[in-house]
TrEMBL record:
<dbReference type="Pfam" id="PF00881">
    <property type="entry name" value="Nitroreductase"/>
</dbReference>
<dbReference type="InterPro" id="IPR000415">
    <property type="entry name" value="Nitroreductase-like"/>
</dbReference>
<keyword id="KW-0560">Oxidoreductase</keyword>
<feature type="domain" description="Nitroreductase">
    <location>
        <begin position="10"/>
        <end position="186"/>
    </location>
</feature>
<keyword id="KW-0288">FMN</keyword>
<comment type="similarity">
    <text>Belongs to the nitroreductase family.</text>
</comment>
<dbReference type="InterPro" id="IPR029479">
    <property type="entry name" value="Nitroreductase"/>
</dbReference>
<dbReference type="InterPro" id="IPR033878">
    <property type="entry name" value="NfsB-like"/>
</dbReference>
<keyword id="KW-0285">Flavoprotein</keyword>
<keyword id="KW-0521">NADP</keyword>
<protein>
    <submittedName>
        <fullName>Nitroreductase</fullName>
    </submittedName>
</protein>
Amino acid sequence: MSELIEKLNWRYATKRMNGQTIPQEKLDNILEAIKLAPSSVGLQPYNIVIVEDKALKDRIYHEAATRQAQIPDASHLLIFAVWEKLTSQHVEDYLKLVASTRNVSMESLAGFHSSINGGILSRSEDVNFDWSARQAYIALGHGLVAAATEEVDATPMEGFDAAKVDEILGLREKGLRSVVILALGYRDAEKDPYVHAKKVRRAHEELFISI
């Protein structure tokens, strides 16, 4: 069994955390993995809001997260927040980044620019929001795997009032809307009833279809 598979067997959706703080180096590695996640056309139409402040975590716990125990006891909450409205300025900024990073001219990217405008920007705001959320979930997956390799517990969470989280963190003023939370920390082995539970997964032959 590879080391990666061992780490993925070690991880689980932790239900209770012990409040211990993640070392900065481990957090940085997880964030770097999230940054390196692929996204359609490379646009990364989201931001990740890092919440460490206890008062903010407590507000989210009491007001927006149906009192899920991971929230106040996590070391950090990563709020994956999608751009509320995808604009031509977002695309322009991205193309300038491509040009500067790869040392190419903006003129050489004209075809790429036209493709994005004719495809992504021609769609409705609702369609683009859903598309952007799917890109954020790809980044979430990278974060989960990276956390496992660092032996940091990580729980992806959807059961929260997104509008309330947006209000608490002032996200709408930034043009953002929260879609999923990743709680990072360390498991409380005494309080978490699932700490020794076996993983339940469908058999390989039931899950995968070879054609």
